[in-house]
Amino acid sequence: MNAPHLYQDVRPSPIAGRWYPADPLRLARSVDEYLGQAEVPTLGGDVIGILTPHAGHRYSGPVAGHAFRLVQGLSAEVVALVGPSHYPYDAPVVTSAHEAYETPLGQVPVDRAALATLGQIVPIKGVRTDPEHSLEIVLPFLQRTLGEFRVIPLALVEQSYGMAQALGQALADILAGTRALLVASSDLSHFYPQSVAHKLDETMLDAVARYDPAGVIQAETDGSGFACGRGAIATVMIAARALGADTAQIVGYATSGDVTHDYAQVVGYGAAVFYRQAASPGAESPGR
Fold it and tell me: What is the DSSP letter of 135?
């Protein structure tokens, strides 16, 4: 077996040792525990995308485990990882300008060719040594479930429905015919009492479960639900649908209060899967 290529231009991690363990053995063990504790449904179809939270692993790891358990062992050569940008940039979408990300579990190469093609359709700015956590925090889960893959990292500054439509369709066009996985990285409501958070998060997750990407954006607009990565969720839903997904299912939910037992101000975390249902035996064919 050939040794993995080691890149010289690697994005330095600003969160290893703080948001998740810096020791590779501890990190692998903790991620595997989250995966092992997750109870997930039998889907009876092909997974095309998932929604996962992006807080520190201690807080959101148990919920993330539900999403990633469903893709464990999936043969994916490229992952389109879409989250929000928590920092302002003079571009609607930003990506890493480095050749690879690095976590304690190893390097993850950035798919520069896909980004170059995508940048011809949607304005994307490459940035170096960025502090963004919404993308990196997901990588250890992907490394433990998929093994080797390339990543298309996209952090949305503009989270409008128009941008979600443009980026989602562009991703679908680029990924068509490849072994790909779409990942939306987003937390839900922030710093409301537990009872209020449950109502807000239910509204947002209901829009996800209905497979209504416009409803995801609208919930934030009218204040009935919140998600810091609403645009990322809508983008992945649109791309997944264009790649054949016809069903969304919520597979996990909790708040930070379920970990800290402080319910005065909590952050909501949801996990979902977007998949194509398998055709029933003997079902009428739609055509050749």
Answer: T
The domain in which residue 63 lies consists of 29-277
Do the Cβ atoms of 53 and 135 come closer than 8 Å? no
CATH number at residue 123: 3.40.830.10
In a domain, 16, yes or no: no
Number of H helices, E strands in the chain: 9, 12
Task: Locate all alpha helices (DSSP H) within 210-263, ordered by sequence.
Answer: 213-222, 230-242, 257-260
- CA-to-CA distance for 159 and 134, rounded, in angstroms? 14
Note whether residue 19 is domain-resident: no
Mean pLDDT per 10-residue run, the chain (288 residues)? 75 96 98 96 92 97 98 95 96 97 97 97 96 97 96 98 98 97 98 98 98 98 97 98 97 97 98 86 39
Spell out the residues 6+ positions from residue 263 whose beta carbon is closer than 8 angstroms to its own: 193, 194, 255, 257
pLDDT at 1: 42
Question: What's the structural domain count of the chain?
Answer: 1
Residue 94, number of CB atoms within 10 A of its CB: 24
Structure tokens at 16: 């290893």
Across the beta sheet with 100-103, the strand order is 10-11, 100-103, 106-109
Residue 3, pLDDT score? 52
